[in-house]
Structure formats: structure tokens, C-alpha cells
Design a protein that fits this description.
This protein has about 270 residues and is of the alpha/beta class. It folds into 2 domains: about 1-190, Metallo-beta-lactamase, Chain A (4-Layer Sandwich), CATH 3.60.15; about 205-265, no CATH class. Helix content is about 30%, strand content about 20%. The chain is built from 6 helices and 14 strands. The chain has helices spanning about 45-55, 75-85, 165-170, 190-215, 220-230, 240-255; strands spanning about 1-5, 10-15, 25-30, 35-40, 60-65, 85-90, 105, 115, 120-125, 135-140, 140-145, 180-185, 260, 265. The protein has a 7-stranded mixed β-sheet with strand order 1-2-3-4-5-6-7, covered by helices on one side. It has a 5-stranded mixed β-sheet with strand order 8-9-10-11-12, with no helix packed on it. Helix 5 crosses helix 6 (about 240-255). The termini are far apart. About 40% of the residues are buried. The chain binds zinc ion (ZN). Zinc ion (ZN) binds next to loops.
Length: about 270
């Protein structure tokens, strides 16, 4: 069991599903003392679910999910079935390959606080990585799921993923008082606003590069554009980077900076 004590009333258990998309594995957080809320039970790994139950000492009353991707929500279904617990979250209207079917007991709403006997959790709607993505705020700790990861860049895969929404959802975090980000993958981030601003800057820098490369090579199809825009990224990651490139291109089209003829992209000059 990979347990990390985050604070007096927050523990983390990391699932054994490490990989390209998941870093060291999905983090499951357990919030509260008298009552425990579990955030993102992760993949449906029986060992992991056993660990959560063992750690909780029979005190779990609520399960929260940040979004419905396969490395975050299937464990919620199992845990809910085993302990007869309600699931709080949001299902997506544009379900994709990475989404897993799940029944939500209570649909969370932006800033509508959910109260337990010794803690309150505020959902913050953060579309971008997924349209149904919510972060959860408790006592200055922001549980960010896949909105912000530690150690790697989040994939924005259209059509459910949207780059403009992602940038807006990063900016949105400035409206809240956050002392530490607890990501769905990786370690706590103790300078949240520096991380958020660096992430926005990184995305806009990449967008600038898309514009530069379009200028040089347009009209161009997306597969030819990937190695040009991501020449600083190992080529084995290019199939993943292609998703985010498409999200950048859609954003440029929305902003009237690029056009698409069904095959090739051009820059509006
Ligand atoms: Zn995800």
C-alpha cells in the first residue's frame, strides 16, 4: 500500500497503475476524520479498493470523482457497490473512449458545497481536459484530478477536451484561496499560483509555435504538423501530443486565426 499522510485529516493512497498517462499512478485522497470522503478511487483494482477500505476504518460516507476517465472513476463504482455509498460527480454528455459508464448518485454543481460532519467540500467546475471535470476544494487544498498534474502535461483531447475552456479553467483557480494543489497524479504542489501561471504560459508558448509553423508550412495536415510543433518532445509521445495539437488548432479556428478545409490547416494572414 502506497500511503502518504498529507495533513492531519488528509491521506493519499496511490494506485498501482503507473504509466505514460498516469505518472506514478492515480492518487486517491481520503478527507476527514469522523467521516471520510474519498476523492477519485481510481481504476478498478481490487488491491487498491481493499486498501481504501482498510484505511478508512468503516468511516467512508461519500465518494467524489473529478471526471469519468478510466484511471479515475471505475474504482468509485466498485467501492460504491461494496459499501453501498453515494457517488458525487458529473457524467459527460460527449462520452469518449476514455470515459467509463458510471451512475452518479448526486450531480455536483459549481461552488455548491457538500457538507459532512467534520468537513465541507466545494466543487469547482473546470472543463478543458474533460467537459465534466470538477476540482474539489477543502481547507485550502485543491484536489485537481487531471486539471493539473505534477510532473507532466495534461492531454487535451477534442471534442470533449477544449483548449480555450482549459485555459479559462486554469485562470479560474485564481478566484479561490488555494495553499496546496493535490493532483490526481504526482506529488503536492505548494506554490499553486506559480504552477498555474507557468502552465498557462507553457500552453500559450506552444500555441505561438503552432502559429509559427503554420506560417512556414501551410496549408498542412495535422500529422505533418505534429513533429514540427513538438520537435522538443520525444517522438514516441507524438501520437499523444497530436490530441493537444488538434485542440490548439480548433482554438485558432475559433479565434479566426486559422482555417481547415477538411484535410489541411492554413493560417489566416
Ligand atoms: Zn483524465
Amino acid at each position: 500500500m502506497r500511503i502518504t499522510k498529507i495533513s492531519d485529516d488528509i491521506n493519499r493512497i496511490t494506485a498501482d497503475n503507473g504509466g505514460i498517462f498516469t505518472g506514478p499512478g492515480t492518487n486517491t485522497y481520503m478527507v476527514g476524520k469522523k467521516e471520510i470522503s474519498v476523492i477519485d478511487p481510481g481504476p478498478d483494482l481490487s488491491n487498491h479498493i481493499d486498501d481504501i477500505i482498510e484505511m478508512s476504518d468503516g468511516k467512508i460516507t461519500k465518494i467524489f470523482i473529478t471526471h469519468t476517465h478510466q484511471d479515475h472513476s471505475p474504482g468509485a463504482k466498485s467501492l460504491s457497490e461494496r459499501l453501498n455509498l453515494p457517488i458525487y460527480g458529473c457524467v459527460t454528455e460527449s462520452s469518449q473512449m476514455r470515459d467509463m459508464p458510471i451512475d452518479i448518485s448526486y450531480k455536483v454543481e459549481h461552488q455548491s458545497v457538500i457538507t459532512s460532519s467534520d468537513h465541507e467540500i466545494m466543487p469547482i467546475h473546470t472543463p478543458g481536459h474533460a467537459s465534466n471535470h470538477f476540482c474539489y476544494l477543502y481547507d485550502g487544498y485543491l484536489f485537481t484530478g487531471d486539471h493539473i498534474m505534477q510532473g507532466s502535461t495534461v492531454v487535451i483531447a477534442p471534442p470533449d477536451g477544449n483548449m480555450t475552456e482549459y485555459l479559462d479553467s486554469l485562470e479560474l483557480i485564481h478566484d479561490f484561496s488555494v495553499r496546496t494543489i493535490l493532483p490526481g497524479h504526482g506529488d503536492p504542489i505548494n506554490e499553486p499560483y506559480n504552477e498555474i501561471d507557468a502552465t498557462i504560459k507553457h500552453r500559450l508558448k506552444r500555441e505561438k509555435k503552432v502559429i509559427e509553423q503554420l506560417k512556414e508550412a501551410h496549408p498542412i495536415d495535422i500529422d505533418s504538423l505534429v513533429p514540427k510543433v513538438y520537435d522538443d518532445v520525444n517522438s514516441f509521445l507524438h501520437p499523444i501530443a497530436r490530441f493537444s495539437l488538434e485542440a490548439h488548432l480548433i482554438r485558432l479556428i475559433e479565434n479566426n486565426q486559422a482555417t481547415f478545409d477538411g484535410q489541411k490547416y492554413s493560417l489566416v494572414e
